[in-house]
Structures are given as C-alpha cells and as structure tokens.
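ARCHIVE RECORD
Type: protein–small molecule complex
Small molecule: adenosine-2'-5'-diphosphate
Source of inputs: curated submission
Record status: active
Notes field left blank by submitter.
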Amino acid sequence: MKLPEYFELDGGDRMPRIGFGTWQASDEELESAVADALAAGYRHFDSARAYENEAALGRALNKWIGGDKAKRRELFVVTKLPPGGNRPDLVQEYFDKSYSDLGLEYIDLYLMHTPFAFEHVPGDLHPKNPDGSMRVDLTTDLIAVWKALQKLKESGRVRHVGVSNVNAQQLQRLTAAGRPACLQIEMHALCQQEEMIAAAAALNIPVVAYSPLGSKALADALAAKTGREYPDLLTLPAVRAAAAAHGRTPAQALLRYALQRGVAVIPKSTNPQRILQNISLWDFNLSESEMASLRALDRGAAGRICDFSFFPGVEKHPEFPFNK
Ligand code: A2P
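STRUCTURE (tokenized, with ligand):
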C-alpha cells in the first residue's frame, strides 16, 4: 500500500507525515540530533516554547539552511503557544519570543499547546503556588485565544495555526471559529484516540500523533512519582510480532501502524541509528491481521501517558480536556 508522505494544507503547503520530536532533549543533544535528522531526511520539526529548546533548534536548522531560501522552504517547522500565553492580549508577545528564538523567516505551524491556561508570569512558564499546585488562570476564553492565533497569520510570519491536547467537544467549538490546520494529540498503541480521529476527520483536520512510541522518559518519570505502571510499548508481544514479520524494529512497527491509520508521527530520538530507523517506514506494509492485533492493544483514555498529572491543580481549569 502506497501511503501519502505529506498532508496537503491550505495554500498548497505540505506537512511531511514523519516529523522529528524535540521534547526532553537538552540543547547540546538537540543540535546534534537535528543535524542527524536532517541528514536522515527529516524536514518536519516539532518544538514548543514550553520545551525551552527553540533557540537550539533554530541554530541547528539555520546552520543547514545557510541563508538559502529554497532550503528553508523544504522545511516544516512547528512551535507552540505555552499555557501561560493563553490570553488574547498575550498571544502576539509569546509568538514574537518563539519567532525570535527560532530565528527563521517564518514559522510553518503555530499551535495552541493546551486548552487550559496558567497565569502569565514573566520568566516562569510553569508558575506554582506555595503548596506546589499550578497557578492556573481560570478565566480563559478559548475562542478569543484561538482568534488571536489566527490573526497572527496576517503578518506572514506564521503560515498555519492549529491546536493541541483538546478534546472532541473543544475541537468542534474551535473549528466553528476557524478550522485548525492541524490537531496534535498523544497517540500510540495504548491510547489510539478513535474518537478524536473520527472528530478530526469529520472536520477535515489532519492529525499529528505525539509520543508515538510511548515517551518512555515521561512514563518513567511519572511512574517514579505516582507508582502507576506504564507498559513499555516496544516490548509488547503484538508489537514485536508485527515487527519481526517484516524484519523491522518494534518502533518501526508502531510508527508504521500510525501512518496506516492515516495520522502523522513525530517520534523523538537523539540516537543517530534510531533517528534513521524512525523515518524508514515507507517500504513495508502491515497486514490487516497485524493491524488488528495492534488495534487490540488500545486502552482508550486509560492508556494516556501525558495526562498533565505533572501539573497539579490543572484539572480544575474549566477547559481541562480530560475530565469525564
Ligand atoms: P532515544 O532518544 O535514546 O532514541 P516518543 O517519541 O514516543 O516520545 O518516544 C521517545 C523515546 O523513545 C525516547 O526515549 C527515545 O530514546 C526512544 N526511541 C526513539 N526511537 C526509538 C527506536 N527506534 N527504538 C527504540 N527506542 C526509541
């Protein structure tokens, strides 16, 4: 089965369906990993103000671009408005900071990172109360923030805007005020997001899966804190069997599974061999029975890793997406 390697966006822009994730990489690791990723053929790079690595990503990309506008056009660069910027009067200021840190002529896609908001505290993206809970801004007007993001396009410094970490009801509300160019959500074998895929498809919004390999570093950190167990996706028998049947690695089976479901993936790695592995996905095909055995791993919302429990108190926000 030949799969499309790009999503076609409005205006003829193309988003490669395999992107490079940058969450939880230090500046040094990231600069060398981005050089490896570019050499391996990645052209889509995902970052966020909240990852605090936009400047390092920008340096690595600009080194490769070398002032050549045609090379810049080959890239698709994504960053995100942090929860502290979720107020219409702050969107421009937060965007400007990401824009100058990345140091690129334009950003391809700017996402609202989360529907919930923190208080705006200069110099502190994750402000906390003395008791350790987050300083949550409960007054968020999600639609007003979304309209402010859309307005950013007028400057030409950002080509597309979209949303992340919203639920289906929020996606519908947001779309009524302007269709997002993209929805980015956690998605992997244990959290397959059937409802969100259907909601996005009905609204004609392409979906990007983050943590497509199960974000082991985050899962381990949460497990140490909460005692909850997170299975290692790469060792699940169904994943290993599908991989072995094609002479591929478990990570490749998981990523190919996501591509065959019609979404894009942004795996993160800082290891050159794994970086190459994760983009070598176009030349094999999982069978229907392999797809079915991977589909059966779904645990729905219970399989979610990035549930924001690392932001205590955030579930009180009226736009917290995962309340039942
Ligand atoms: P490393 O950076 O050492 O390769 P996710 O993209 O779901 O957030 O997962 C990222 C995690 O998966 C990182 O810990 C990364 O470690 C690991 N990883 C990335 N690619 C592979 C691969 N092909 N095989 C095994 N582990 C991988």
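CURATOR ANNOTATION: Residues 109 and 187 are 20 Å apart (CA to CA).
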